[in-house]
Amino acid sequence: MADLDGNVSAKNFHPDVPAQRFTHEIRGAANLDWGMQNRLARILDPRTGRTVMLAFDHGYFQGPTSGLERIDVNIAPLGEHADALMCTRGALRTSIPPATRAGLVLRASGGPSVLKELSDENIALAMDDAVRVNADAVAVQVFVGGEHETRSIRNLTTLVDEGYRAGIPVLGVTAVGKELTRDARYLGLAVRIIAELGAQLVKTYYCEEGFEEVVAGCPVPVIMAGGKKLPELDALTMASRAVRAGAAGVDMGRNIFQSANPAAMMTAVRAVVHDDLDAADAHELYRSMTETAVPA
Ligand code: R5P
After folding, report:
1. What is the C-alpha R_g of the chain?
2. Catalytic one of 11, 203, 228, 229
3. What torsion do the CA atoms of 285, 289, 291, 296 make, to the nearest 10 degrees?
4. Strands annotated E in 147-272
5. Sign (positive/negative) of CA torsion 270, 275, 281, 285?
6. Is 2's pLDDT higher than 80?
7. Residue 111: CB partners within 8 Å, gap ≥ 6?
8. Which of 183, 187, 159 is nearest to 171 (CA)?
9. 227 touches ligand 1 (CB under 6 Å)
């Protein structure tokens, strides 16, 4: 209890200064509760409004993945370069140090393996477990146009409702089936549905034509998905084009951890996302870091 003896009377009330309005730069977040805005700010760096998220949740449907054989060895050290980590709770609890400073986006849907129909997902995480591990968001796959479209959307809306109760945002992930084209028309449809149904963040693939319209038509931040491994310069070019078209950063997996030098690739991606470095310059940065790296 405060000591009342010798208490100095409070008088610096700045009566001429209007109450501060802390406007949030995150798209669509101005009317969210404080906890949700705070969690979003742990994913999207408030200095740039963008994120470099490292995705390594692939095991939830495809088991061991090249580059993810030992998450504790290969991925945990990359955490210091990431604004946020996107992973399963299994990977988190077994292989990621609790002292990590990165934001956390937890995989919350799953069910079928790569051997089955991938859209046949259910919710695979209780919100109180997300709270328990201090997640900053939960991620759910949404299969617009997929066989189990309606259920995947129900998964999304259930998590959004639970997320509001806990103050945890939801990242809706556009899952493009084999038969669906990754064009602006489809991606624009998918991201808009996901945002309108309540996700506070959306992750989607990049498309060469019309990506700025995909982003402009989505009332919440759009984060670019990485996709299959590309040559480093191509991946950096895609990331650069996406953020220049309005994306709030990237969520990349294989293009980071399957790179010959994942730490250097993360540094180069950060330069593109947060410093708006040209892809060619970022690639030069990647090359110089790789050439000077001491072999293990
Ligand atoms: C994407 O929908 C899933 O979350 C993936 O497991 C992961 O995020 C994919 O990352 P990338 O395509 O960049 O390897």
Report:
1. 20
2. 203
3. -160
4. 170-174, 201-204, 222-225, 249-252
5. negative
6. no
7. 120, 121, 122, 124
8. 159
9. yes
Distance, CA of 172 to CA of 8 (rounded, Å): 51
Q: How does DSSP classify residue 250?
A: E
| Closest by CA position to 189, among listed 214, 212, 207 | 214
Q: Which of 87, 83, 108, 107 is nearest to 96 (CA)?
A: 87
Is residue 32 within 8 A of residue 44, CB to CB? The reply is no
Ligand 1, atom 6, lies closest to the CA of: 58
Strand segments, DSSP code E, in 24-73 are 51-55
Average pLDDT over residues 235-254: 98
Closest CA to 87 of 68, 101, 62, 107: 107
Q: Which numbered atom of ligand 1 lies nearest the CA of 61?
A: 6
Measured distance CA(239)–CA(243) in Å, rounded: 6
pLDDT tens digit string along 146-185?
999 999 999 999 999 999 999 999 999 998 776 678 899 9
Where residue 207 falls (left for φ over 0; alpha for ψ -120 to 50; beta otherwise) is beta
pLDDT, mean over the chain: 95
Cα 68 to Cα 65: distance, rounded to the nearest angstrom: 5
Dihedral angle, C-alpha 93, 94, 99, 105, nearest 10 °: -50
Consecutive H or E run containing 74: none
Q: Work out whether strand 201-204 and strand 222-225 pair parallel, antiparallel, or are unpaired.
A: parallel
